[in-house]
Design brief:
This protein is 49% helix and 13% strand. A hairpin with a 4-residue loop joins strand 4 and strand 5. It has a 6-stranded parallel sheet with strand order 3-2-1-11-12-7, sandwiched between helices. The protein is of the alpha/beta class. Bound molecules: zinc ion (ZN). The site of zinc ion has 6 residues, from loops.
């Protein structure tokens, strides 16, 4: 990937349910970064999609009495629709049942096999049917799977394994040579410690009779791929791996987003698989925080404290939600979701600060028939504005979203203090003084609008339009007035 290209991806949600708030956070974060990069002049590839294989899909489809393909089509459609509603502007929405992905996964497998990293072995162990995986004694609580509260069965199977253990040194080298490889640094430390502790080869296939819905293992009609060489490979499929080398070279390596539960898969297992297939590691792994319930506990169905993103969009609209997720919650640590804070943040930053400043300027500029000219912005004022916008960009290029938008809140705050101090409405002010104040503020607001665009595009488009036409608008209506 050359410096004028930028490739970013989310993880692919498993489509056995509806999108939850964690997906929402990840989609929005990725979308904001992608839009910002595009606005900064880069050519951007933004990948997202759905993970659609596995026994659960097959079983759910059976329950509903439809074909597995129909079942996954139906569920993938919900995620696509959700992205539309959320205003997620992806380049490709990949589905792991897509034909090019199936081919790419098989090519990737063959590359790894050729390098001697895939082997078959008889495996006997305790198997939880619910988890579709083998358990070790230490995974069990009172002899039962804690996820399913049932005893695993003794099960013996011949499967393919991936030589994960071989990549210990190579992984540690990546982590140690690039301290930014995983963000935040606490997650990098976690991975160094995990990999240093020794790696166990993991199983990457199942017998077809046990897993009827999956990608066939090349040259073995009795086996299908289990999770890893299927799901993770989408990040290379989507940019042409195995099909269009030139396109692939153009985009790779990737910046990947994932949640804390996914850190090990993305930054250790997947990276080892890439090296095995002879592909350069990802560029960076960004591990966002978890959204907790208001009291700081984990959201869970059993506790009944799960907040649905659909309900939030219904209640507040898309942009207030996008704003809160990115500018109101920490980017890399866990944050508690609070309705009160969402509303307060919207009111303080957007209504009272940004929106209010815009309307104050429009009212006065209209009255004074001001013609704005950025060449005439005063030097000191411009320097203050630019300090904030430069810091905004620096933070954005480092993917520190919360810190970046903090700068824009400071910027509009500065604008409101400035207008209050300058009193351009005061009759004792000369026309030159009034012009200077309003013209300066126009410069400030243009920068704020630019910065906010990747996050709240609709509001910014309307703000821009209002400023050009000098027409007062209610940019951010009261949330309770929302229909
Ligand atoms: Zn289980």
């Amino acid at each position: 990937m050359s410096s004028d290209k930028f490739y970013i991806t989310t993880t692919l949600p498993y489509v056995n349910g509806l999108p939850h708030l964690g997906h929402t956070l990840e989609f929005v974060q990725a979308d904001v970064i992608a839009r910002f990069m595009k606005q900064s002049g880069k050519e951007v590839f933004f990948n997202t999609g759905t993970d659609e294989h596995g026994l659960k899909m097959y079983e759910k489809a059976q329950e509903e009495g439809i074909s597995t393909q129909e079942y996954v089509d139906k569920n993938a459609a919900k995620f696509i629709e959700f992205c539309d509603v959320l205003n997620i502007k992806y380049t490709r929405f990949i589905r792991t049942t897509d034909e090019d992905h199936i081919k790419a996964a098989q090519k990737f497998w063959e590359a790894s096999l050729k390098n001697g990293d895939i082997y078959k072995k008889q495996y006997e162990g305790l198997y939880c049917v619910g988890c579709e995986e083998f358990k070790t004694e230490k995974d069990l609580v009172d002899g039962k799977c804690p996820n399913h509260n049932r005893e695993p069965i003794k099960h013996s199977e011949e499967n393919y394994f991936f030589k994960f253990s071989k990549f210990q040194d190579a992984l540690l080298k990546i982590y140690k040579e690039n301290s930014e490889f995983i963000k935040p640094s606490s997650k990098l430390k976690e991975m160094i410690s995990f990999v240093s502790g020794g790696l166990e080869d993991f199983s990457i296939s199942r017998r077809k009779e046990n897993l009827p819905w999956g990608i066939p293992v090349p040259n073995d009609s009795e086996q299908v791929m289990y999770v890893w060489f299927d799901a993770l490979v989408n990040y290379v499929t989507t940019v042409g791996y195995g099909e269009n080398e030139e396109e692939f070279k153009k985009w790779w390596p990737v910046v990947q987003l994932c949640g804390p539960d996914n850190t090990r898969f993305q930054s250790a297992m997947w990276q080892a698989m890439l090296m095995s297939a002879g592909i350069e590691p990802s560029k960076q792994i960004l591990v966002h925080g978890m959204i907790l319930a208001e009291d700081g506990t984990k959201m869970s169905k059993s506790l009944g404290n799960v907040i649905s993103p659909f309900d939030l969009i219904e209640k507040y609209g898309v942009e207030p939600l996008r704003y809160y997720l990115v500018a109101g919650l920490p980017t890399y640590s866990d944050g508690a979701f609070s309705y009160e804070q969402l509303e307060a943040k919207y009111k303080a930053d957007l209504q009272n600060n940004f929106g209010n400043l815009l309307n104050r300027l429009i009212t006065l500029a209209k009255k004074n028939s001001t013609k704005f000219d950025n060449k005439e912005v005063t030097i000191g004022f411009r320097a203050t504005v630019d300090t904030h916008t430069i810091e905004f960009k620096t933070q954005m290029f480092e993917f520190n979203l919360y810190e970046a938008f903090e700068q824009i809140i400071k910027l509009t705050d500065f604008g409101n203090k400035y207008i209050t101090e300058q009193e351009p409405w005061n009759k004792t002010k000369s026309p030159e003084e009034v012009y200077e104040t309003l013209n300066n503020l126009n410069y400030l607001l243009e920068r704020a609008i630019d910065a906010y665009k990747p996050l709240i595009q609709d509001a910014c488009t309307r703000a821009e339009d209002a400023l050009t036409k000098l027409e007062n608008i209610i940019l951010f209506p009261n949330l309770e007035d929302k229909e």
